[in-house]
Sequence to fold (556 residues):
Amino acid sequence: MARKLFSESLDSFFSGKKYDARLKLEEAMTNQIYLKDVPYFWYYAAKLDLLLGKIEKAKEDLNNILFFSPSNSEAISLLNFINSLNNIEKSLSPQIKIKELKKIKNIINANEKFFIANDFIVINSFVYLLDIQNKLIYYTNLDNSEENWIKLNSVIDKNFIPFNIYYDERTDYFYISGNTGLYVIKNFSQQKQFFFEKINKFTNLLLFGIDRSGRLWTFYAKNNSIIILDYAGNSLEEIPLDNKYVITSGNYFENKISLIDIKNRQILQFSTITKKIEKVFPIKSKHLPLSIISLPYNNLLISFMNDGTYLFQDNKFTKLFDFSYLLNYNNGILMKFDYSKYELVLDQIDFISDISPYYVFLYGIDFNVPDMTINLKINTIAPGNNLINFIDRKIYITDSEGRYAFDYKRKLEKPYFYNFDNMEYLFLEMLPLLKNDSIVILNDENNSNFEKYINITNIVPFLFTNISLYIISDTPISEKVRKLVRLTGGAIVPKKYFVTFDNYIKNNKKIIQNISYKIFPPIAPGIRPVKIYLQLGSKIINDTMYYYSEGVGIAE
Fold:
């Protein structure tokens, strides 16, 4: 009877009825439970309690598991993650672990794929390299089993000379700047024949990135100014920089743009909140800086001509590589172009500390019995945008302790939108009823007591079910609240930019991370635990979810 009720609880949970799921589980736990099932019941109870905003009860559930099984890895992982949220305000300087993932050479089997990559990005499982010399974009997956080219003279104009590329994963827009203006491909991942649409006339824009309010931050060298565009390319504001600065490289990350001022040999840190240069870091090297990228936790990577590539952490330079690479970074992947070998090197970067900044959460399972296929939905917490590129090379799956080969895919889906004008109503009544994979917009004109409601207890349900929270406000907001909101994939949006944000968010998509694998009969009846493991150096983080099988292929 306990297993039957456990199964009914899972059905309620997967259909979004979290309260009903917890009540069914409570009923199941009043019945006799198989000894091997006891940890399943307690861990599932902890996950439900977290989603219902009962953190202390969840900790009690997890400690019950550890009382009987002190080495239970998923209970330890979940407790560590909950405790790490208590330290979200702390300034961390984690150890940076770099591991080479792949090299993409320009010549393969005597065929030249590209000449020199001047810019490069990762989109899903493909790497895109911009070749200015040949006016093309070459793209390939890691094992080079799939590849192709976008010939810019054909899809834009024969006189077009490319300069910079950028991809926005929230709208699926692919941008390219050049000598005749700024262009975009909409719904990029769905295109088979690429078509670029011109969206403004600014030439050779350096594209820093789109923030979560929908503002595209760029640098326009002709006017020596930072220009803010909306995601559709319309100009919102131009911020002139002092003419004593000569900007040659820059990178956006979490409300900051880091710039190289090559003339004065210094790093400028521009705040996208105050719209001012707030910090200046002198460069004492005799070599000229070439490229700069921002990493999580206020770290910078800077390459110097004829010298090497350095980590700038805690106001100190540490040499990491002997070559002066052209650099980029996205979702845990460091990209380094080596001009001497005409190859792009891809590295995985992990940020290791006792306060784990990572987590992986299983929040959906569908067992397709006729196909014998299990389909999972996972959400990840990671420094930056919470996504980990090429995560399939860092995770593995077990089902009832057997390890399975799997397919990992990201899907872009139109989310369900919630608009709230009452903070109390959202957090005290509606929180357990929110749909998975949705977007919540809070615009409460009468209540600005964010510290009271935006806390770990109320944010965890957002994190574990892929729900993003956006707050429209000009009220000063603490750094803790800002970081908790950012963890959900959302942001604090200034009222001045509400129209820009509103147009942008309507075109946003949610990234759904899916894992699928096949199982084979005979399948014994009972509760089947599915475990996902995320490996970070020597550390392993894991989570478990369950499904119930009546048994498949068992002889009568």
